[in-house]
Amino acid sequence: MVAQVGQAAHRVLIIGGGFAGLYAARQLSKDERLTTTIADRRNFHLFTPLLYQVATGAVSPGDIAQPLRSILRRQRNTTVLLGEAVGLDPARREVLLADGGPLGYDSLIVASGARFSYFGHDGWARDAPGLKSLDDALEIRRRILIAFEAAEREHDPGRRAEWLTFVIVGGGPTGVELAGSLGEIARDTLRRDFRSIDTRSARINLVEALPRILPTYPADRSASARRQLERLGATVRTATRVVDIDDHSVTVERADGTRELIPARTVLWAAGILASSFVTAVARATSAPTDQSGRIEVQSDLTVPGHPEIFAVGDAAVQPWKKDRAVPGVAQGGIQGGRYAASMIQARLSGETPPPFRYRNRGDVAVIGRLAGVTDIPWLGPFGRQSGFPAWVLWLTIHILYLIGFANRIVVVVRWAWSFFTRGRGSRLITGAPLLPPIEEPEPPA
Amino acid sequence: MVAQVGQAAHRVLIIGGGFAGLYAARQLSKDERLTTTIADRRNFHLFTPLLYQVATGAVSPGDIAQPLRSILRRQRNTTVLLGEAVGLDPARREVLLADGGPLGYDSLIVASGARFSYFGHDGWARDAPGLKSLDDALEIRRRILIAFEAAEREHDPGRRAEWLTFVIVGGGPTGVELAGSLGEIARDTLRRDFRSIDTRSARINLVEALPRILPTYPADRSASARRQLERLGATVRTATRVVDIDDHSVTVERADGTRELIPARTVLWAAGILASSFVTAVARATSAPTDQSGRIEVQSDLTVPGHPEIFAVGDAAVQPWKKDRAVPGVAQGGIQGGRYAASMIQARLSGETPPPFRYRNRGDVAVIGRLAGVTDIPWLGPFGRQSGFPAWVLWLTIHILYLIGFANRIVVVVRWAWSFFTRGRGSRLITGAPLLPPIEEPEPPA
């Protein structure tokens, strides 16, 4: 199955086609000493930083995803495989797939990422979907739009308010961007679409357990993000954790122990991460240490302790950075980790020993609604700390540059330019289960 | 719920937001004597003529669909409602929704369309999905792409051939355009993406029960379409009907009674139509006559016999045209029927009696693969009968002009221009169930 360029070629197997896996494969592109196989259970690479834009209807799924086969079609030494890795036999150097025979390797790069952690409350997943995959984004888009539709048809003020209340759990970049985007939709995009409700009356709540949102940013950036969210009408609750979720409400607990019940029909989850199940399988098979999220504690060369032929990168690993801090779970972390692991494999084939992995912080950008945001880009000096409109422009530039696929870039720019000028959103389609939940009390005949 | 502009306003209720329903609503746009409510179980209008392009990955769902609320947001007399109509009480003049109270009306326009008919073999729907909705298109796209992925991983030549064999049932415009598009994908788009299979060896079979494909076109256009499909490598079987379908094969029967079993993993259905279940409910409640597809046999003014206040238009009705022929089930039929019904309502309010409905045939265009097609546009004279590249250009122009939403038009043009020059397809994402069916015989360890 795996095309082998001669018997002697070094076989690199990459599990996962996210940022870490894809950039590892690209790094190995022209190296004729090896063959690369990249396996993913999806057939596409997803530009996850824009996933919340799919969830809020600004762009289409096809705009931020590109088939792995297309991206890698010119790399003749690379095979793309659709399949889910479920197990590892480190002694035989084989990865087991859920739906096919084992894949052998000489070097393995584990880049299968992470998903959201419900902190042991897996039952919450039904009422509070997380935003990790394209299918998640479409489900969240469906729920958001259905909520406004249901509010439009609801006569009881209390139940209408429930439909117009949104809770986002987690004040990291995903939660902040989701909240900002939702605020923008409610205040601007949908405003003139409905006849019975004022969409601006929607209440958007962002709940964060830590004392401030965007905890990986400097404190003044967090404060600025909070102000910008509040200007969009969102309510930010920090030092507050979620203790219960059902289909009508969220219960939160403040640091002082007081509790509050927020009646809300739409809850979105953007808190905590948990390593993918393949990472857990790798850790078990190699007896590797993991952190509380299940990510592998790799060595300074990103290899699994005791297994120099196995690398763990991106969200699958705790990539070392500063002495008290790991590389954050952002695209850059995956890109740099993946490239490093690939170049390590190449260096070994050349008999070299490269220096340990060193993360270069390129900075963070989060966008808040239509024209605002915060940035923290250390290497730009004071210029790297922007708020509001300049932050939004920086964000736009960076994201368009990193988006894979030239046609996608044009299409996304067209969509944004269009929605910018019209304040509309082109992709507000409800796909999947089409219907509203039944209205609890039938309205009297007109 | 329904905003009423004064008590005296005439209440028009439109069920269905396809071509017929949408153009009826637009016709009523500025008429202050009436209020319009348009209800659909989807929140968007779908440009169905391009649905096969979503199914084959050329465009994204968002490119060919637009929320009804956005399209109609400026029509202050119009309310959009997300809901599924399930019953009619003609005496009380009320439509019942699956998930809410009844909707009253003074005039009703039934425009809830049709779906595919499996001719009594409803069990075939599982193995041979039809192409009517956006979700259908995504499911078909998933199956087509999974088939190539499965073939890439399959070692047994027989089973690999099964994965690379596609059967399309129905030689109308949808079937022909699907077959052409699939031929193009296999010969061009995917060619360099795979390592183990030659996608050009894919076999595409088009099966039509009538003696020729595109039976509503003139005979020479049918012959030209057949030649163009065969040039793309497709096999066209006419006067052949499907007698059985399972997940591994299709059995067909020729006019002479001989049977043939075609081993194929991917079967797509584009044959026969059946009125929607709301149309059936309307026919039952009004004792209206229906044709064998369940469409209502309307009078010359498109009203249901005995109910001058109820119109049935588009695919919900047998709209009269020539004495031996009804209006074909194309977008133009819906647009003209919907507009006529709306203008009838307006004329009545003015005390006028307009002439009976008269269909103006604007002609037909079908595209076959990347640069070919056939047209039959009577009013253009000899110029209206094109084949090959000129037909494709005509088709492109017409479709872009009729696509609703300006941003969509630009985006679709960008996508097409891009895929034209690169021979790529931007939207080849497998969403939904991500995994391949298990491979039947595990391959030996590498």
In short:
Two copies of one chain form a homodimer. Chain A has two domains: 143 residues, FAD/NAD(P)-binding domain (3-Layer(bba) Sandwich); 200 residues, FAD/NAD(P)-binding domain (3-Layer(bba) Sandwich).
How would you characterize the overall build of this protein?
Two copies of one chain form a homodimer. With 446 residues, chain A is of the alpha/beta class. Chain A folds into two domains: 10-41 and 83-116 and 273-349, FAD/NAD(P)-binding domain, CATH 3.50.50.60; 124-271 and 371-422, FAD/NAD(P)-binding domain (3-Layer(bba) Sandwich), CATH 3.50.50. Chain A has twelve helices and 24 strands. Chain A has helices at residues 19-27, 51-55, 68-71, 124-127, 134-153, 157-163, 173-189, 219-231, 277-286, 331-349, 388-402, 406-422, and strands at 10-15, 34-40, 44-46, 65-67, 78-82, 85-89, 94-97, 100-104, 107-110, 114-116, 165-169, 203-207, 234-237, 240-245, 249-254, 259-263, 266-269, 273-275, 303-304, 307-312, 320-322, 325-326, 364-368, 372-376. Chain A has a six-stranded mixed beta sheet, with helices on both faces. Chain A has a four-stranded parallel beta sheet with strand order 13-12-11-17. In chain A, helix 1 (19-27) runs parallel beside helix 10 (331-349) and helix 5 runs antiparallel to helix 6. The longest helix of chain A has 20 residues, at 134-153. The first copy, chain A, starts with 9 loop residues before the first strand and ends in a 24-residue tail after the last helix. Chains A and B meet through strand 4, strand 5, strand 8, helix 5 and helix 12 of A and strand 4, strand 5, strand 8, helix 5 and helix 12 of B.
